[in-house]
Amino acid sequence: MLYLNPKEIEKFSDITEESFTPNETQVTLTENDYYSREVCWDGNSRNLNYLYFNKAKKLGKIIEFDPTKKRLSMTDIINENPTSTPTVDYENLEIQTTRLRDIEFDPRLFKPIKTGTYLDTFFSYKEGIMPGINVMLTGDPGVGKSSNLMDILVNVRGEDSSKRVLYISAEMNEIDVKEFEQYYPGIVDVDFLYIANYLSDEDLGIKPYQALLSVLNQGWDLVVMDSLVEVQSLVQDDLGLTGKKSEKWILDLLRKHNGGHNNLNLYTTFLCIQQKNKAGTYVGSKRLEHMTSAFLNLGWDTKEKGKRYMMFEKNRKGKEKVKLFYSFAKEGGLVYDEIRHEKELQILERLQKPSESVVDEFDVSEFEKMFADTSEEI
């Protein structure tokens, strides 16, 4: 990857190697016609639009040049060379370290939010959804991502009516949610923010990001965001940010409310639906991964057609890599296959035991055989 800084170049002319990343070889910019110039790199040529060059210079941006691609793209300008490491006078920096004994924690941070269902055991060792964390949820189409999250909010309210729960919808409207009432009657008592309404109705005079900031500032125990990437897109358009900067904006906002910085000093937990890319993994940067306590994946089982399951790919608060199968009850709500989940946990724990011969304790095929009698629907 090469980086061209238009501010360092007075006009279209030969470009010195210093204008690009270190250790690259002979990069030149030569005249082609009035509207474009030719960028040459090791014999590979790409056309650079004259107006594009001037726009980058005016906005204070660098041009990212990938010799293997046909297009050139603009990125934010930076003070240092993109691949260089800034010099730090670390000997004169005064950085304070932290000891746990010196931190005073709010006891509310360690009191789980209860749904009153088997899901509490699945979510954490403390049997509930922990305050002040972020959980990303991905899943296959039609597997029930929104339904699961609605069920959680309804059950949390059913367990403790004082809990403040919020559903932020960037995709569904009021009519869409009304359809869920027949399955989740308690949804009528859940607060919703239909954030896309502030985009479509200009008479409101409020932008989506302003509505988001205002409502979150009221203070909530548990917030569903459906979906993170759609909310991020609205913020990106409102504030004119790049994709990376809008993601940072959203994550900083989540972290603020994780820490209780709202009107009610509530340590907000966010359950965010996040879309998958073509590779089947979540959309987002490494920063998203680091700021997330858990990644929950919902899917259709490949061996048992029609069976839905959920599984934590990552979970700092509880068990990982163990499927919890679920189905939708006719009368509404979700039903979890508790017996199957507990059996699988027991077998995995036995497999992980430090023993000279685990096989002597039980036949490994037991792991597969145990599901032989579970062909019926949950």
Protein described:
The protein has about 375 residues and is an alpha/beta fold. The protein folds into 3 domains: about 1-75, no CATH class; about 105-335, Rossmann fold; about 340-378, no CATH class. It has 12 helices and 15 strands. It has helices spanning about 50-60, 120-125, 145-160, 175-180, 195-200, 210-215, 230-240, 245-260, 285-290, 340-350, 360, 365-370, and strands spanning about 1-5, 25-30, 35-40, 45-50, 60-65, 70-75, 135-140, 165-170, 190-195, 220-225, 270-275, 295-300, 310-315, 325-330, 335. The strands form 3 sheets. Strands 9-8-10-11-7-12-13-14-15 form a 9-stranded mixed beta sheet, sandwiched between helices. Strand 14 and strand 15 form a beta hairpin. The radius of gyration is 26 Å and the shape is globular. The two termini are about 55 Å apart. Residues about 10-25, about 80 and about 370-378 have low confidence and may be disordered.
Notable traits:
single chain, 378 residues, Rossmann fold, 3 domains, 9-stranded mixed beta sheet, 12 helices, 15 strands, 21% strand, globular
What's the arrangement of strands in the largest beta sheet? 9-8-10-11-7-12-13-14-15
Number of domains: 3
Radius of gyration: 26 Å
Number of helices: 12
CATH class of the largest domain reads: Alpha Beta
Instruction: Count the beta strands.
Output: 15
- Helix proportion of residues, in percent? 25-40%
Named CATH topology of the largest domain: Rossmann fold
Distance between the termini: 53 Å
Structural category is alpha/beta
Overall pLDDT: 81
Q: Which range does the strand content fall in?
A: 15-25%
CATH superfamily of the largest domain: P-loop containing nucleotide triphosphate hydrolases
